[in-house]
């Protein structure tokens, strides 16, 4: 089963993902997300025993330092390349294939019941930039740091070149489905832009929110469940501090249409499965 958990920042997406069946492998691309999930009071109660028993295993895949520094300095923005001075990408392709190798090993041995990708937009960024690095490497004279005569270092992929990164992402999802291993992808939200007529000019305006990273249409086609996390305020009064609980709503279901629109407070995988059984 392939499940996407979407929502704004700090809405319990990582925590929810860790409730899925054991043995669970957590791919940490959002560095620090795993620690936040397990250190919360809810996380300590649910996960500490399974972590000690190695029923939950997390592995970090941080982006290369140069890439991280470029983003801090504003040279690169997530989803787009913006380079002040042309820079050769290094280490990103190698990280992509390291992660891919680890996932293939899990697929071949079936050593885990569930794999969590946290987060999926960052996986897409890694996939896309790894392919760009491959394209850049072709521009250089072999075994040198010199560009081939007449070459200008590429800064982005052409629209038609996205076919290959898209195919790699789909193949990964298909492999998990084929092997019967649960794949949980953690999604965060980003601004949605649309072109609108403002006066006599067409401007691109923020019109709402959408899942970040890989094309939303691709995700909705591939997943069996699309879940959206939100925070709901409860027992708030003038004398009490506001208290928030996590609520998950089923936005898309391929495992039972009756699940559509169902909501769960402080959700877990077992809650979803119990509701499925009751409704079918």
Number of helices: 9
Helical percent range?
25-40%
- Quaternary structure: single chain
| Dominant shape | globular
Structural class: alpha/beta
Radius of gyration: 21 Å
What proportion of the residues form beta strands (DSSP E)? Answer: 25-35%
Written overview of the protein:
- The protein is α/β, with parallel strands linked by helices and 280 residues long.
- The chain contains nine helices and twelve strands.
- It has helices at residues 13-17, 33-39, 41-52, 65-72, 92-109, 120-138, 163-179, 216-222, 269-279, and strands at 2-7, 24-28, 56-60, 76-77, 80-81, 114-118, 182-186, 189-198, 201-211, 225-234, 243-253, 263-265.
- The strands form three sheets. The protein has an eight-stranded mixed β-sheet. A two-stranded antiparallel sheet has the order 4-5.
- β4 (76-77) and β5 (80-81) form a beta hairpin.
- It starts with a strand and ends with a helix.
- 29% of the residues are buried.
- The mean pLDDT is 87.
Walk me through the topology.
Elements lengths: L1 E6 L5 H5 L6 E5 L4 H7 L1 H12 L3 E5 L4 H8 L3 E2 L2 E2 L10 H18 L4 E5 L1 H19 L24 H17 L2 E5 L2 E10 L2 E11 L4 H7 L2 E10 L8 E11 L9 E3 L3 H11 L1
Parallel strand pairs: 1-7, 1-10, 2-3, 2-6, 6-7
Antiparallel strand pairs: 4-5, 8-9, 10-11, 11-12
Helix pairs in contact: 2-3, 5-6, 6-7
In short:
By secondary structure, the protein is α/β, with parallel strands linked by helices.
């Amino acid at each position: 089963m392939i499940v996407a958990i979407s929502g704004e920042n700090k809405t319990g997406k990582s925590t929810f993902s860790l409730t899925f069946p054991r043995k669970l492998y957590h791919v940490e691309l959002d560095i620090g997300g795993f620690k936040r999930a397990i250190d919360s009071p809810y996380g300590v109660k649910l996960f500490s025993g399974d972590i000690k028993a190695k029923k939950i295993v997390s592995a970090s895949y941080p982006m290369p330092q140069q890439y991280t520094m470029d983003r801090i300095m504003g040279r690169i923005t997530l989803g787009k390349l913006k380079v002040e001075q042309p820079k050769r990408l290094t280490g990103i392709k190698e990280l992509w294939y390291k992660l891919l190798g680890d996932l293939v090993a899990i697929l071949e041995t079936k050593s885990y019941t569930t794999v969590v990708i946290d987060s999926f937009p960052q996986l897409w960024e890694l996939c896309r930039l790894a392919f760009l690095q491959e394209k850049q490497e072709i521009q250089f004279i072999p075994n040198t740091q010199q560009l081939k005569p007449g070459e200008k270092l590429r800064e982005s992929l052409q629209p038609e070149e996205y076919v290959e990164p898209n195919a790699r992402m789909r193949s990964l999802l298909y492999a998990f489905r084929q092997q019967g291993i649960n794949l949980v992808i953690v999604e965060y939200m980003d601004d949605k832009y649309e072109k609108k007529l403002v006066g006599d000019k067409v401007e691109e305006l923020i019109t709402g929110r959408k899942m970040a990273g890989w094309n939303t249409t691709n995700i909705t086609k591939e997943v069996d469940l699309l879940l959206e996390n939100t925070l709901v305020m409860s027992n708030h009064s003038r004398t009490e501090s506001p208290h928030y609980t996590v609520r998950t709503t089923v936005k898309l279901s391929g495992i039972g249409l009756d699940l559509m629109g169902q909501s769960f407070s402080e959700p877990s995988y077992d809650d979803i499965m119990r509701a499925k059984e009751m409704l079918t």
